[in-house]
Amino acid sequence: MYSFINKINFYACLSQTEKAALHDCVDSKHHLSRGQTLASAGEKTDGIDIVTDGWACRFKRAHDGSDQIIALMLPGDQCEDVSPVACPLDHDIRALSDLRITRLDRRKLLSVISPDSGLSDGLAWSSIVDRSIMGEWLLNVTRRPAAMRLAHLLCELFTRCAIIGRTQGNRMHFPLTQVAMSESLGLSPVHLNRSLQLLRRQQLVSVCRKTLTIIDWPRLVAFAGYSDHYLHTGGKLSADLRLAS
Amino acid sequence: MYSFINKINFYACLSQTEKAALHDCVDSKHHLSRGQTLASAGEKTDGIDIVTDGWACRFKRAHDGSDQIIALMLPGDQCEDVSPVACPLDHDIRALSDLRITRLDRRKLLSVISPDSGLSDGLAWSSIVDRSIMGEWLLNVTRRPAAMRLAHLLCELFTRCAIIGRTQGNRMHFPLTQVAMSESLGLSPVHLNRSLQLLRRQQLVSVCRKTLTIIDWPRLVAFAGYSDHYLHTGGKLSADLRLAS
DNA sequence: CGCCATACATAACGTATGTTGTTCGGGACA
DNA sequence: TGTCCCGAACAACATACGTTATGTATGGCG
């Protein structure tokens, strides 16, 4: 829940009353273990589920049975849009690690949002950023070679973790397996492995034991051709990210 | 403008007053010719631009100078989200044909939307569908081989044109060049040409003189592994699409 | 300590797709 | 009617990435 408030607050300033109101919208809390399905295509959920701890992903199954991850969900991310309509999902959501979920009451939440408030703006921003990320992923998988693609994903994830205050210096908890990364990037697990080794050999990052360490942030950014514009950070993170080098 | 109302009305029922109110939100109208830039990355637009005639695209430039189209915009599609925040674009928008644009006043539009109205729901749906399309594109470019990818795109575009009432039987106006298609699908122009020829040889479609003709809709759908679930048509188009075979 | 499951690494080989360059045909325009 | 030019077609070649197969760590657990 605090990750969620952190994230919304990052994009638009929330008042104390709004923060309290959000807590009042909590309907229930759940735990899921790694690999479990959170929601399936076709389902309509009445509430709004928030990832409060752990990572999850949205994915689609392809004609050949392989899965493509179309979005990674970090703490603070929502499973559904905060919108008046409860739309049936067109994809599945799966836990990539053990997960804590907080379910908000959709009606209550909608009633709490007053126009021109920080909350209203923050939710709008969050939705826009989610979409921007998909656009950047589209560019990533179509135009960048494997290693660059991977580097770009790592940059994005490090930035997103910084936004919700989950980085420690140049390190962060990183529950993705190589298979999950390959499914995100449209690569085979083998080729992802090769690419990861390349980044390691170049002394750019190290990924091991569920920990991602950024060895040389400026060079990693250059290698990936990364810019955090599409995350709409507004430069608010430059200090945190400099720490990472 | 009518395409826009058509589209919103397809997803949620608009009252006569709401339709009239939308007309009142019109701020100005513009013409653009093919190739012109509608909006550039970093720009914030105060109004909401609607494509009323012609096609446009959102695209991003890659490190090697090539362009990736991340969304195709048909009549009725919006350039910006109808949200309280005017967010700087993270990509460019370009006219793929001669274009007519209608600009709505954001503040007026927002004030016209009452909660739990058809308009409110329709706009929410439209935004959800835009996002779903991106998710499907992500699957398309990463997991499907070239010809299947192309077939899938053609199915999608035919469905979207049917939604706004711009198909004639098994035909539709189709302003995309092969280069534009290749930029949408993450293929080289040459390989797109090969794929298009394959679909033609298989007697599935014919694309010529800016017209797309569906020769065999059921087989095209099967070949593409297409389902319009992600467009949330709710089966409302089955009649129109049967016409296409 | 030994068993097993899972994740990660490496190699050999095949193939889908990209690249370069050339040719062709049909509108636009003089 | 001829000329120009853009979009489309085609061929020869290059390569990045996928596939299959097998080997190596690591950690949980009785």
Automatic annotation (TrEMBL), chains A, B:
Segments forming domain HTH crp-type: 144-218
Output the SUPFAM superfamilies linked to this UniProt entry: cAMP-binding domain-like, Winged helix' DNA-binding domain
Cyclic nucleotide-binding domain residues are 10-115
Q: Does the keyword Cell membrane apply?
A: no
One Pfam family hit: HTH_Crp_2
- SMART domains associated with the record: HTH_CRP
Q: Which GO terms describe its molecular function?
A: DNA binding; kinase activity
User: Which keywords has UniProt assigned to this entry?
Assistant: DNA-binding, Kinase, Transcription, Transcription regulation, Transferase
Q: Which GO terms describe its biological process?
A: regulation of DNA-templated transcription
Q: Which InterPro entries match?
A: cNMP-bd_dom (IPR000595), cNMP-bd_dom_sf (IPR018490), HTH_CRP (IPR012318), RmlC-like_jellyroll (IPR014710), WH-like_DNA-bd_sf (IPR036388), WH_DNA-bd_sf (IPR036390)
Name used for this protein in its record = cAMP-binding domain of CRP or a regulatory subunit of cAMP-dependent protein kinases
Q: What is the lineage of its organism?
A: Bacteria, Pseudomonadati, Pseudomonadota, Gammaproteobacteria, Oceanospirillales
